[in-house]
Design goal:
- This protein is α/β, with parallel strands linked by helices.
- Among the domains are: about 150-350, Vaccinia Virus protein VP39 (Rossmann fold, 3-Layer(aba) Sandwich), CATH 3.40.50.150; about 355-384.
- The chain is about 40% helix and about 15% strand.
- The chain contains 13 helices and 11 strands.
- It has a 7-stranded mixed beta sheet with strand order 5-4-3-6-7-11-10. A two-stranded antiparallel ribbon has the order 1-2.
- Strand 4 (about 185-190), helix 8 (about 195-205) and strand 5 form a beta-alpha-beta unit.
- Helix 4 packs parallel to helix 5 (about 135-150).
- It is globular, with a radius of gyration of 21 Å.
- About 40% of the residues are buried.
- Residues about 1-5 have low confidence and may be disordered.
Length: about 375
């Protein structure tokens, strides 16, 4: 029987059978961890927020067929909530002018090597702009990379002999892929729900050849040696084992984009405490989140003022270094500020016009985000 073809096969190479076999190994190891976890006693930290109930719909990806892995990006729509299906439907249409404008605005002042271009694999799709595939996730990752570049973080990581990065809630692995490309000698750890790690580990195993060893990439609590900070590879850690790396290494950068606001209050507090112990003295926490934590549905009766704040939880453990819209850099030690400033100045001096433009964009972003609060304050004042 002849296998059906997709429009992607004309543009992207199919994965090899060896790559599929390695993906199957990763999925099998993580399924075993899920079974062991579910058989044990659950707790507030292990159990995901109700927001993550839909991940059960993705169970077919936990034991994926070759066809599913070959089109993996079409199955990662829960991360970060953007489906690629509209791009398939509009595959032969003209590029939307609004998308072009958004993209041009985000990359206008960024050096070419810092422009996020996803690899042409696993059915990645969007429109071709500036030599790369552009979709909603391209735009999202670009703002993170730009922030880390202009704040001097990436330059600092490049200067470190053995930089160590920890990403919490890394989705399907898109940001990890590009940061690893920019800092190839980095040792990269990812912490997430075991179900989510199936998506990121398989994606990165194929997107970053040689950086994911399917036999040793998954930490299960018993194989302590895989936490060794030496090397330049990926290690995937289920969320309930996140305390295990404490004392084994200090991280130069910890990242969370989006998921703190999707967790329970207790989970965010636990992560804040863990991060405070994992950060190196000169390390930073980079995060972008909606501030309110919708950890249950009680706010429907009590009102949104009853919701916990991500910012308040983090501020109890860290000091704020920079805020660019919702994107924030936190530090736990003054040594971190002293260590980052030379690299931030290097970026600033390299192209003052670009740096000034980026700073202006961030100021506009902050003003726009504050508008609802300003309007509420005015209405409250006028109403008195």
């Amino acid at each position: 029987m002849q296998e059906s073809r997709t429009l992607f096969e004309d543009n992207f190479p199919s994965i090899s059978r060896e790559q599929y076999s390695e993906a199957a190994i990763l999925a099998k190891k993580l399924r075993a961890i899920i079974s062991k976890r579910d058989a044990g006693s659950n707790n507030n930290f292990t159990d995901p927020n109700y927001i993550w109930e839909p991940i059960k719909v993705m169970s077919y990806c936990f034991d994926p067929t070759y066809e599913v892995v070959n089109t993996w990006r079409l199955h990662t729509y829960l991360f970060p909530g953007n489906s690629l299906l509209p791009y398939i439907c509009a595959y032969h249409n003209a590029i939307p002018k609004t998308l072009v404008k958004k993209y041009q605005r985000k990359v206008a002042w960024v050096p070419d090597e810092y422009i996020f271009r996803p690899p042409r694999i696993m059915a990645e799709c969007g429109w071709e702009i500036n030599g790369g595939i552009v979709n909603d996730e391209t735009l999202m990752y670009q703002k993170h990379v730009s922030t880390l570049y202009f704040e001097g973080v990436i330059e600092k990581l490049r200067s470190i002999k053995n930089p160590k990065i920890l990403e919490i809630g890394g989705g399907y692995g898109g940001l990890a892929y590009f940061l690893k490309k920019l800092v190839p000698h980095a040792r990269y750890y990812m912490v997430d729900l075991a179900e989510s790690l199936i998506f990121s580990s398989i994606y990165l195993q194929i997107a970053s050849p040689g950086a994911v060893d399917p036999e040793t990439a998954i930490y299960d609590g018993a194989n302590k040696d895989v936490l060794n900070p030496a090397g330049n590879h990926f290690t995937f850690i289920p969320n309930f084992l996140v305390r295990d790396p404490i004392g084994k290494t200090g991280f130069d950068l910890v990242i969370n984009t989006g998921s703190f606001g999707e967790m329970k209050k207790e989970q965010v507090q636990e992560y804040a405490d863990v991060i405070s112990k994992l950060l190196a003295p000169t390390g930073f926490l980079y995060e972008e989140n909606h501030d309110k934590i919708y950890d249950d549905l009680s706010y429907l009766k009590k009102g949104t003022s009853s919701l916990s704040s991500v910012n308040d939880i983090l501020a109890a453990k860290f000091s704020l270094f920079a805020a660019n819209g919702r994107r924030k850099l936190w530090y736990g030690n003054e040594a971190a500020v002293q260590a980052i400033m030379p690299f931030k100045n290097i970026v600033k001096e390299k192209d003052r016009k670009a740096y000034s433009h980026w700073t202006f964009e961030q100021n506009i972003s902050r003003i726009v985000q504050r508008l609802p609060k300003v309007k509420a304050t005015i209405k409250s004042f006028v109403g008195r």
